[in-house]
Amino acid sequence: ATPATIPSTQATEIASQRYWALVREAQSEFASAEYPEASKTAREAISLAPDENTAWEIYREASVAQAADE
Fold first, then answer.
1. At what angle do helices 53-69 and 8-31 cross, to 10 degrees?
2. DSSP letter at 1?
3. Longest C-alpha distance within the chain, in Å?
4. DSSP 3
5. Cβ pair 22, 44 in contact under 8 A
6. Helix %, strand %, coil % for the chain, to 5?
7. What does the pLDDT read at residue 3?
8. What is residue 7's DSSP assignment?
9. How many Cα atoms occupy the beta-carbon half-sphere of 2 within 13 Å?
10. Cα separation of 27 and 3, whole Å?
């Protein structure tokens, strides 16, 4: 099915699932001290759900940790 044929609630659910998968990936990267990767993954999640705070928090923490490493 093309995006135009997916009902909006299903499309929203797919985006939400993708968002949370990216959040988990960013959390894992952060835990492994892969700060640039965590930041990038969190930004991707933010693009899907900019009003959701979890990815923003990971992005902020990863950015601070990355700056401290430099």
1. 30
2. -
3. 47
4. G
5. yes
6. 85, 0, 15
7. 55
8. -
9. 1
10. 29
Number of H-type helices and E-type strands within the chain: 3, 0
DSSP 70: -
Cβ atoms 12, 32 nearer than 8 A = no
Q: Both tokens of residue 18?
A: 């993708």
Q: Which residues of the chain have pLDDT under 70?
A: 1-7
Q: Which residue's structure tokens are 């923490």?
A: 61
What is the model's pTM?
0.84
19 and 52 Cβ atoms separated by less than 8 Å: yes
CA distance 16 to 45: 9
